[in-house]
Structure formats: C-alpha cells, structure tokens
Amino acid sequence: MKNILALTFFTLLCFSCTEDADDNTSENVSAAFKFTHSWNDTPVTNTDFNSIQFTNANGEEMSIEKLRYLVSNIRFEKANGEIHNTSGHFLIDVTNAVNLVFQPYTPIPKGEYSNVIFTFGFNNEDNYSETYTDLNSASWNVPDMLGGGYHYMQLEGKFIDNTNTVTGYAYHAIRAVDNSDPDNLLFQDTFINVELGPVSITKDLTFNVNMNIAEWFKNPNLWDLNTLHNMMMPNFNAQVMMFQNGQNVFSLTGITE
Amino acid sequence: MKKRIVYVVLAFCLSCSNEPTDRNTYVPTSNPLEIPQVFEDHIIPPVIPLNNPQTVEGVALGKKLFFDPILSADHTQACAACHNPENAFTDPARFSVGIDGSIGTRNSMPLFNMAWNYDEKFFWDGRVFSLEHQALEPVINPIEMNNTWETVVTRLQQHTEYPQLFQEAFGASPITKELATKALAQFQRTLISSNSKFDKHLLGEATLTAQEANGLNIFMDETKGDCFHCHGNPNNPLWTDNIFHNNGLDATFSDLGFGEVSGDPADNGKFKSPSLRNLAFTAPYMHDGRFNTLEEVINHYSEGLQDSPTIDPLMKKVNEGGVQLSIQDKADLKAFLLSLSDPSFINNPAFNNQ
Fold it and tell me: Which DSSP state fits B20?
C-alpha cells in the first residue's frame, strides 16, 4: 500500500521532469479503474462505517466495519478473440480508502474492444502460483489447511440477531473448499469474472465500477446472518452462495475520458 | 517485481535531478539492514526514511544513546531501563517506573522488527508517526525520563565523547534533538528478530513437534483459535498486522486507546495488535499488562471475552465468552506460540550494552 503510494509519487515526479510526450501520436492509452460502493441506491463510503444503518434483504439491521477485496487479471477482449492482458492485482481497501482508484501497470492499445473483464479475487493460477509479498504483508492469506492462496474479500461488521443481540459477522470470500477430509481437499471455483462490456478506446479513460454491497445478501440466496455470520471460510456451501450472490454485485456506472 | 519497478522509477527520478553534489561532504559508512531470508521471501521491504539511511556510525551512536541514562533528568534512567534486551526490549514490570517514581498505566512494549511496521504508527494507541518522532517522547514524558531536549542537547555537547560520535554519524552539523532521535531510530531498526524455531521450520532447518504443529492448526482454524486474521501467519512472519482492534478485554474503557488519538468513538478500546514473537520473554501481556501468563491470555480468548460496542467482529461467540478451546487445544496453542520466540535475539551481543 505504501509501495503503491511511493510508486505513484515517484511516477508523478518523473513525469514532471520528462519532456511532454505527444499524446496524439501514441498508440497506447492508460485506463484507470475507479471503484465506488453503495447499499442499493445509496452511496457508501468509509464515513458510513461503524454504525448500524443498513438493512439487508432478510431484514437484519447491520453495520460495516471493514471492507477490502481483491481485483486482478484485468483484460481487454476484441471481437476476433484477441485478448490484451494487463498485469497487477489490486487490494481495494474501502475501510482506509486506499486503492479506490488504480491503473493496471500495462498500457492499453487504442481500439475497439468487445469486452473488458476483471477477476474478483484470483483465478486458480494466480492464486497459487506466486507469493505476493504485498498481500502477505496485508495478512491476506488463506490458511494452508484450506488450500492456501489468498482471500477474495473481507467484509465485516455487526448485525442485530434474532435475539436482539448485536453480533459480529465476518463475510470472508475465498475459493470454496470442502475440507472434511484434510488429506483430500475438494475445491470449487468461486472467483468471479466481472464483464464490463464493449468499449471503444481512443484516449485515456476511467472505468467507473460500483459494488452494491447489499447484493451480497440478496440474490439468488437470501442471506440469513443469524445462521451464517462467521466461520465461513471452511464452509463450502457458504462460499458457493457468496459466489452466486456475487454475480450481480458489480456494475459499470460509466466511462469517463 | 513491484519492488523492482519502484527502484527503477526511483533511479530514473534521481537521474533527472541536477542537485550539485558537494565532494567535500562527509559521508558516514552505509550499513543497510540485513533483511532476513524469511522476511525477504514473504513480505515487502522495510520502511527506511530517505533522510535517515542506516549507517555504521549512526547505529553505534544510537545504541550508545539507548543505553545511556544521560537522556533522563537525573541521569538515572536509560531507554533500556524500560526496554530491557533480556526481555526482548520490554519491561517485566506491569507498569514501568519513571525517574521520579511515578508509574504509568500502560505496559512497556517490546522493540523488534519495527522497520516493518509499514504504517509507522507507534505506541499501543498509534499516536506517533515514525520512529524518529517516537524517540522524542520518552525523554520529555514526565512519568518517564522527565527531561527537556534542551538539557539533553547541552549535556551531549559538553560530553567528552558525544560531539565526536555525532560528527562521525552525521558530519559537521551541530548536535540537535533531531539528530539524536535519528540515531536512536537507526539503532532500533537494527533490532530484528527472525530466528525462532518457527522461522527455522519455515527455512526447513527445524521440525515442529506434533503439539506445536497442532497449535499452529488451532491458530489458523477459523472454527477454533482463529488468531491469524490479526496476528499474522506463516506467510506473514511479523506475527502482527500492526492494526488497531478491540480484542474484548473490557466492557467499558478506562483507557480509550486508539479512540483517544483518532477522536472517533468507533475506535474506543482499540489497541495495536502486538507481535506474537518472543512471548517467552515479554510477560506481562496486553496494553495494561493485565495477564501474567500465556494461559491467562488463551483463557481470555477462549472464555473471557467482554462485549462492548467496538469489539472486533472477528471475536466470535462473545456471549459465550469466546471460542471455547479444549484443555488440550489450549496447551497446543501455547506450545505453538512459544515456537515463535527467538533466544538468539535476546542474546545478540550487537543489541546488548557491553
């Protein structure tokens, strides 16, 4: 996180002392991603955290205390099947308003794209192939007993349960794993490919993406926090339900140039 | 990978600044931190301020200052009085006694791996940013060294050795509190602990006992101890997140902790998660040293949790008092915790006052 700040800072510093490049002749643009958050139609920022002020689809009143999640593998697809991949993964930390806006490290060629896609979480290759020191430093790991790799999301807070008690919840999304036999873990993929749709890229642009947090509790699985509020990492079914509910969590709210 | 990018960008930037370099400027001997293999393998590099690079002379000066009672008003108390190397640089007393006998309300803190506190928030409540600034505080704290920096600087200037040592560390500038704290910070950044049994296990040089291995599983299991969300894991060998949490010690707070600093009531009763390294040497435990043994700590998490509005959502089964570990689980968890202690750290001659 500090690294990224430092990087941005030095990058700015550098640009400030290089000659002005002629933008028009360049074949590449840089694409930024800006993430906003909402509870249905109401915008949510970290200033709305820590007080019980949201009501989920099942009727529980709840708060958010922590929200961070991983976005990776941003790619630009052309109609002819050609894919322009970008490198980097981004840990969006809503609690501390860090990385709400970021740019993939790879420049994007101008052109017509039939789809822009990012992965919520990590695909399996990215999840297990590498050690990510930045994610380790953020204690983003999944225990080895659950197959290792990394969290996709940590959403935490309190809700009022059916005995009227304020209770903590920890809605942590990872790759679904059945660990009933520790020597033979069974997995199901639960990373989500989020498709932002077609775009024609002619100059630098920003994709504005919104996460509707309420969706995690709504559709197709009406989420009952009374029964599912913690210990969900080793809960295979809960992970699959999160994956299902996550399908319509993200939406493209606009592209700004 | 990302590290490399930063360096490349950095080099590029420096190459286009055209500050004149004065060839006569004295340059102390560079002495970059030796990054242990387990850290190099797993986590991002430490934070070293650009304006206070590690040098041989700076570290030596910082070490001398750290062990020198000259910093306290009545020449009786060094930093080491409350940060004893044998105790991984903390104080075995629940509350440290300041020079005039007054005692505070917080337990001293062990000092190690502080260059990896990426957010650079120091003290139990995070009230000071950066080690350089931190070192200003104990000297003038009325319940600690109860001195003024003016007095300290005058004493150092009149001392038989310090003027020479400052010159060697920082060149010909006059002695200031800023330079004194820079030296202290340099020394404290060298306090690296990375050689516990568990570290050796990570490097394939030691094997955990069955009990320690089971303890690790309890630590990592969301349905049992679930300690790893706040206290690190084998891939984050700092064994802390350096973030502020309320781990359920009290129903009401006499010490607001981080809340006092941030001014946000939602932070009341939150304190910085301590590293679980070196627990064998750092009793008593918690910000107010309320627990004398690891058994008491584990019992707290197992059945002693106190509910309050700011208790961390990760504290489970609060109405039952906690995660209800079995007697065997508790013993195993303790065995694992002790495998994170590093005797070579407390016996390192480089860190002791010879």
Answer: P
- What spatial distance separates the first Cα and last Cα of chain A, rounded to whole Å? 26
**B6 contacts A2? CB cut-off 8 A:** no
The first and second tokens of residue B128, run together, are 């000071």
For residue A26, being part of any structural domain is answered with: no
Residue A91 lies in a domain: yes
- Residue A195 is assigned to a structural domain of this protein: yes
Say which residues have a Cβ less than 8 Å from residue B13's Cβ, sequence separation at least 6.
A10, A13, A14, A17
Angle at A55 between CA A54 and CA A56, to 5 degrees: 120
Do A169 and B313 make contact, defined as CB atoms within 8 angstroms? yes
Tally of structural domains, chain A = 1
Provide the residue type at B140 as one letter. I
CATH of domain B52-192: 1.10.760.10
Contact B190, B350 (CB under 8 A): yes
* Contact across the interface for B42 and A6, Cβ inside 8 Å: no
Kindly list the distances between the CA atom of residue B28 and the CA atoms of A67, A140, B233, in Å, as whole numbers in the listed order: 45, 39, 38
Q: What are phi and psi of A69, to 5 degrees?
A: -155, 165
Range of the domain at A224: 31-256
Task: Select from B9, B222, B232 the Cβ nearest to the Cβ of A139.
Answer: B232
Q: What CATH number does the domain located at B197-345 have? A: 1.10.760.10
Burial (0-12, 13-18, 19+ Cβ within 10 Å), B181? buried
CB contacts of A145 in chain B (<8 Å) are 217, 220-221
Q: How confident is the model at residue A15 (pLDDT cuts 50, 70, 90)?
A: very low
At residue B133, what are phi and psi to the nearest 5 degrees? -70, -35
Contact B89, B112 (CB under 8 A): yes
Tokens encoding A215 = 């969706």
Rounded to whole angstroms, the Cα distance separating B205 from B207 reads: 7
Give the tens place of pLDDT for each residue, B275-317: 999 999 999 999 999 999 999 999 999 999 999 999 999 999 9
Q: Where are the domains of chain B?
A: 52-192, 197-345
Question: By the 8 A CB rule, do A2 and A79 touch?
Answer: no
Distances (CA, A) of B106 to A182, B78, B79, B237, B288: 43, 18, 16, 26, 5
Instruction: Tell me if A11 is assigned to some domain.
Output: no
Under an 8 A CB cutoff, do A7 and B5 touch? yes
Between CA A73 and CA A84 the distance in angstroms is: 10
d(CA A160, CA A175): 28
The reply to whether domains B52-192 and B197-345 share a CATH topology is yes
**Residues whose CB is less than 8 angstroms from the CB of residue A244 and which lie 6 or more positions away in sequence, other chains included:** A220, A221
Measuring CA to CA, which residue among A139, A1, A127 is closest to residue B2? A1
- The answer to whether the CB of A177 falls within 8 A of the CB of A142 is no
Helix (H) and strand (E) counts for chain A? 4, 18
pLDDT digits 0-9 by tens, B115-160 = 999 999 999 999 999 999 999 999 999 999 999 999 999 999 999 9
- Chosen from A10, A99, A172 to mutate, greatest number of chain B CBs within 10 A: A10
A45-53 contact pairs (CB < 8 A, 24+): A45/A94, A45/A97, A46/A94, A46/A95, A46/A96, A46/A97, A49/A95, A49/A157, A49/B266, A50/B264, A50/B266, A51/B266, A52/A158, A52/A159, A52/A160, A52/A166
Length of chain A, in residues: 257
Single pTM value for the model: 0.92
